[in-house]
Design goal:
The chain is an alpha/beta fold. The chain has 2 domains: 2-178, Rossmann fold, CATH 3.40.50; 188-270, N-(1-d-carboxylethyl)-l-norvaline Dehydrogenase, domain 2 (Orthogonal Bundle), CATH 1.10.1040. Helices cover 48% and strands 14% of the residues. The structure holds acetoacetyl-coenzyme A and NADPH dihydro-nicotinamide-adenine-dinucleotide phosphate. Acetoacetyl-coenzyme A is lined by residues 46, 49-50, 115, 138-140, 142-144, 185-186, 189, 221-222, 227, 231.
Length: 278
């Protein structure tokens, strides 16, 4: 299987890593060499950790040897499946899929790891809606079980089957749902994180207390504010905007505090500061 990944950020790097772990031949692309170097360093660290715990088949070097890092989209020409994991912005993703539709071989499948953007709309931009699908991995990709598989309006059964098989080969559990804003995962998760942020804004409790209440009281592995920082506050805001606009209900209104923090450049773990400092 020739597997392509676009974007070497936290999601793209993780997807490339698990694809290589499962024996696929992987190409990962980003716009600048420095982003590729950063992504490669994160993958190396994760592989070393998994190896140390005896959870890796083969050596880290063997897995890394299956990943080609590139800045050229033309390197995707021969890929069977290409998963896009760039910034959560519909216009930017659509522009990329217009290009990919021209580059990737005609029977290649194009997939988006988008958290919330309509799959049907990106599928139209790609020019190959039957061979387009949502393949939504969870963060951190090497540790999380789920892949949410989202069919667009025109996605063929064959495409859904191939992507489901690829997700299983990557050691994940694929679960299918339909194309509605935020799908299932973020339609349910993100309003909870947004509400936790609203609690901070209204002074209901300190961030640490909110996180502790949800961890100890509901057995969540991370508190909602730690999780929002982990996902990225820019991504959380982008998802809330899609829910608000796409479902047309004010119950999905992004918290003004979330908006203000993103405006201030406090994006969570990736920028060094969000609700906590890193
Ligand atoms: C926004 C979207 O569109 C969709 C999304 O993805 S939403 C986000 C979904 N993800 C979640 O909700 C994650 C919630 N958090 C968790 O499930 C857990 O906290 C977790 C799985 C991330 C970590 O597990 P944990 O039990 O808290 O333990 P923790 O000690 O932090 O980590 C376990 C081990 O995995 C390791 N680890 C963490 N990330 C790793 C990675 N990427 N690769 C390899 N190892 C990793 C840690 O180093 C740690 O190793 P040690 O045991 O040697 O210390
Ligand atoms: N964070 C999460 O928990 C999850 C995120 N997702 C989704 O995955 C996607 C990526 O998110 P995530 O990995 O967190 O984001 P990151 O910010 O970590 O990475 C995004 C990557 O895409 C690059 N990029 C930005 N703009 C462009 C562009 N115009 N063309 C090409 N590449 C670009 C970024 O470069 P630069 O460094 O310049 O920004 C970066 O390398 C989003 O759609 C997000 O919604 C899905 C599941 C979970």
């Amino acid at each position: 299987m020739n597997f392509g990944v676009i974007g070497a950020g936290q999601m793209g790097g993780g997807i490339a890593q698990v694809a290589a772990q499962s024996g696929f031949s992987v190409v990962v692309q980003d716009v600048k060499q420095e982003f590729l170097d950063r992504g490669r360093a994160v993958i190396e660290k994760s592989l070393a950790k998994l190896h140390e715990k005896g959870r890796l088949t083969g050596t880290p070097e063997e897995v890394l040897g299956r990943i080609k890092f590139t800045t050229e989209l033309s390197d995707f020409a021969d890929c069977d499946i290409v998963v896009e994991a760039i910034v959560e912005n519909e216009a930017i993703k659509a522009q990329l899929f217009r290009q990919l539709g021209e580059i990737v071989k005609p029977d290649g499948i194009l997939a988006s790891n988008t958290s919330s953007i309509p799959i049907t709309s990106l599928a139209t931009a790609s020019g190959r809606p039957e061979r387009f699908i949502g393949m939504h991995f969870m963060n951190p990709v090497p540790l999380m079980q789920l892949v949410e598989v989202i069919r667009g309006y025109s996605t063929s059964d064959e495409t859904a089957q191939k992507v489901t098989e690829a997700a299983r080969a990557m050691g994940k559990t694929p679960v299918e749902c339909n194309d509605f804003p935020g799908f299932v995962s973020n339609r349910i998760l993100m309003p909870m994180l947004n509400e936790a942020i609203q609690c901070v804004m209204e002074g209901v409790a300190e961030p640490e207390a909110i996180d502790q209440i949800m961890k100890l009281g509901m057995n969540h592995p991370m508190g909602p504010l730690t999780l929002a920082d982990f996902i990225g506050l820019d991504t959380c805001l982008a998802i809330m905007e899609v829910l608000h606009q796409g479902l047309g209900d004010d119950k999905y209104r992004p918290s003004p505090l979330l908006r203000k923090m993103v405006q201030a450049g406090l994006l969570g773990r990736k920028s060094g500061r969000g609700f906590y400092s890193y």
